[in-house]
């Protein structure tokens, strides 16, 4: 088994959240591959019912069972689980009350929907409880079944409430199995074994949601992890050129002469091409300046940051392994 120092040594539950559209599930999947590399066994958990994990690994919809979906670089296995609240409810009733058969009858009556409408936090306890059970689970040899668990969590705006299970069920049960179970789940989620990572783009809204999310985690006493800057585009122009373009000083005439000298265009065509290229340079420079400002804002959170490149061909399986390699190169896993 591969052994190396990482930024998150000792962390066994990696919670991944982010604003919709930032690539949260993609990053969670790549992180699971990175953590499994070198002979480890990692569980990737989905809780929103979107079957995003199955889609990204090009698999059929996942059932409510843990099954291997990928082989990691240098050996190692990634297992996946799509948590179903009703099935989790049945396990819960069997575990604490020995009522699995009765529980099936109750689910047909819509008891899960009823319970979670009355106490919305109860559904979160069910799905986070299944995840933390996988973190704690040991095999017959006394060793942990999984070296790490990656949770593809709800979006940033809901993640603090989703993870703060003790508070969410306080009005539902102050004593008894539900309270004891939520305390056990909370003990894992608030321990040094857990890290909550944020996925963002270098754009104003996702960056602000990330900063707000980190503040909410800190207020709730939940352990924040790192920030993954996803779909980062590398600038191909020197900073001096970008600064000039932003200020409106980009010389179209000089670019026209350059095109003519290189034999790429002549006459009016050279001028038209130069003007079009100049517009693209100015747009690129403005976007780069905005991204630089967003980086500065994120730096105020004082947590580790990692960059994942924008993949020209989109995220297929090959791209997923490329992202996993980048994660390992940066010392995340």
UniProtKB/TrEMBL annotation:
Coiled-coil annotated residue ranges, if any: none
Pfam families: ArsA_ATPase (PF02374)
InterPro entries named in the record: ArsA/GET3_ATPase-like (IPR025723), ATPase_ArsA/GET3 (IPR016300), P-loop_NTPase (IPR027417)
Domain ArsA/GET3 Anion-transporting ATPase-like, chain residue ranges per copy: 13-169
Regions crossing the membrane: none
PANTHER family: ARSENICAL PUMP-DRIVING ATPASE ARSENITE-TRANSLOCATING ATPASE, ATPASE RV3679-RELATED
Protein known as: ArsA-related P-loop ATPase
Natural source organism: Nonomuraea longicatena
Organism classification: Bacteria, Bacillati, Actinomycetota, Actinomycetes, Streptosporangiales
